[in-house]
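question for whoever is on the cluster today: can someone run the full assembly for these? two chains, 899 residues total. i dont have access anymore since they changed the login thing
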Amino acid sequence: MAIRVEFIRRRPGGRITVRPTIYDKDNVTFGRATDCDVHLPDLRVGLHHARLICRTPEKARIEASTDYRVRVDGALIRRRDLSIDQDADVRIGPYKITLGPADADADLLIEIELVEAPTAVGESGDEDEIFSMKGYAPDKRISAWAVTVLVFTVFLAIPLIVYLDESGEPRQQRSTIDYLSPIANQNWLSGALSSAHANLGANCRVCHEQTFVRVRDDVCLSCHSQTRNHAPAQSLVAAAPDKTTRERWLSSLHNQLNIPEERCGSCHFEHNGANGVTPTSSSMCVECHSSMDRRFDETTLVNVINFSHWHPEFKPRIILDPQPDILSVQRISLVEHPKENNGLKFPHDFHLKDKEVIRKLATLGPVSQARYGDKLDCADCHQVDAAGAFITPIEMELHCGDCHSLAFVTEQNANVRFLPHGDPEDVRATLEDFYLAKATELLLGDRPSGVLERQLSAEARARRAQSQSSAFVDARTNTQNMIARIFSKDGICQKCHTTIDSGANSGMPRMQPVKLTNRYLPKAQFSHAQHMAGNTDCVDCHRAETSSHSSDVLMPSITVCRTCHNDTSGTKAIASDCLTCHSYHDDSNNAPLMTSTNAVVKFSDGAK
Amino acid sequence: MTALDSHTQSSDTPIRHEGFLRHKRYRYLKAAVVISIVSIIVYLFVDVEPRHNGGTWYGYTLGTISTLLIVWLMLIGLRKRAITPGHWNLKGWTSAHVYLGASLLVLATLHTGFQFGLNVHTLAYTLMVFVIISGFYGVYFYATTPRRMSDNRAQRSQAELLTAIRSIDRQLREAAQPLDPAYVREVKRAISKTKIRPGLFTSISATQKRCATTHALKRLRHAAPSAPEEMRRPLEDIMAILERKNALLLRTRRHIRFTTLLRLWLHFHVPLAFALLAALVAHIVSVFFFW
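^ ran it for u. tokens below:
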């Protein structure tokens, strides 16, 4: 079989040229590719667009390849049988294909004519316009510049301008800079200031004095001038553990960059929120204190790792001898069950439970009864101070005087006279004054009131003359008798105090002085008020009910604390780090850590 | 099947194309995962005072790494313009760009120590997050769009799509010759008023509403049953051509949608990246200015 393909071209002036090709086979391929039998150079034609198969001299079939279609009579078809007499309008792209009757050379004639204008291949202006982002989004370069300049202006230029302006002389009037200043500060603020420093937020330069230099200690000390150091610098160095490789590397890096180490800011990190500036983690303390005895000979402190397991038993301050001239105080661990010698006789159990106390309370006046109720409890004598931290010192008149009354006489006008408490000499002077005053009254007053002189009998007058003549002698005798009674074994003083010297030689007895400890654990902070919340009772920690001697130390052991306090918080535990009880820079006189030589030992007088 | 066919229909061929996501068996994905996990583990177990943030030794370390990474990631803009062959080819760079860029989400977040505020520091972080999110969009479109695009174009170039539309317009003009002026007006409108390229949002949503061709087709279809006998045949021809034009317009607009989606994310990604660089510079300067 042979197929004759004729390209028909109409020339201007109506001339027609025909370019025939004969294919000696039963099918021809059409397409834009040059290896097709019939090359159709138009973009609307696929590379290998279609194939025409000659079946008989009158009939043929046209088949489009996978992605293309042939248009037959306006419809896009994939394949179609055609016949010569059908006169179908077959189009491949802009080309019209007509089947014609065969002649001598071939079985089938195919005429191809370009009937639509050829497409302009090189015309791409439209394409750029349509398939670009024009009108959809601004040029990337322009927007990149715009946002970069914006960010630089707001977040770099404005804060710098404000900084440079603030370094000049202060102005009288508000200017633009003053309005920009809060924005600039906010822009650069790396985190909220702690509540203590919140007032400094308006001006970064208060603390950040020098640019590109870390905040210096001088700046901190300009306000915190009273802050004590934890220990002398050489002790701190000696107690610190050896640096790890990373720390050594960091140190050398800091040295090279001229960045000071061991600053205030090494522990106190600002811009970490309201409570952020005070470190709370125990790890910084434990770093030195976990193995300090190995490095630092001078310390008497026991190693501490945590509260729950590696903390020594409390060592309360124990008075071994209350004599003022040889006052002996020692810190003794509760493990050793220390006994105190504070000079006082005081059985806690008796006062809390004994019937004698209850009977005595019943005899008191209505005001006192309202105060104590029908029996004593701890709070009747031990009151928390105004700060809620410690117990106020015991004062005899205030806390004991209602029962252990020092009243020695009720005068005719119901005026009660009390003995002074604290100094036997004062007692003697008071009694002496009282009796001498009585003697003077006797000498001046010649008769009892309400009785006329003439009504007195001669006997009475003689008795008066007698007593007047011995008034001062009697006063002295009364005084001495009274002193002997008061200070005697059954006297009021001996209830609580012991006599060192009966006064046989000097005339005045000498009493054992009393020293009561005000703070047993001076290096720890404690708040009674915080611990008395809920159902907690004093005797839960202080075993006063079973204490029959004042020598008993009623401080609770660390195990008592541990029932509630643990290293980390839990369902039944309160998280407790070192700073829960201790302070690093304690500037009170009571609890300077590691500076015990400077410590001022302060006790309550207790024996007023 | 021709050589061209076999190249485009990759899914049927045994040769597996290794895209930038799968480059070197996910080498950079693995690297990014390892970096992220290691940094998280260190974050959890290292003891820093007073808490994690940018100012601890670990914070400075993460900040330095993140900064260098951001600068390197931005260098892809230069790298893609310098065409070099070999080991560090652009595909490798792109792969590393995507995965290491994503790992910044972990590194920079740990650098912040989860401390955020209204300041330049959080601004830099936020910009970085937006750059990465826009990058994820880019990765998604790069991974899914090209195939859909080539399926849509059916082996035609985008220029060919336009040429075909123009050709249909010529056919319309030719076929409309025997019609009455009323019908011709519709056809003319379909030719002259059809906007191939819709607005941005119409383009992205890929709807054909308000297209003059669709409109003309609808009107003619409505008018055809009542048309005079001799108009029927040419009208049917016209409608067939209009339908073809409609189909072609749909393809073209879909193509525009794809090209837009492939590029639009970059219009966020690139400027945001530069804004991030500026914020990063401001962040670093501010931190050390008031150290």
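summary bc i know u wont read the tokens: Chain B touches chain A through 68 residues (CB under 8 Å). DSSP finds eleven helices and no strands in chain B.
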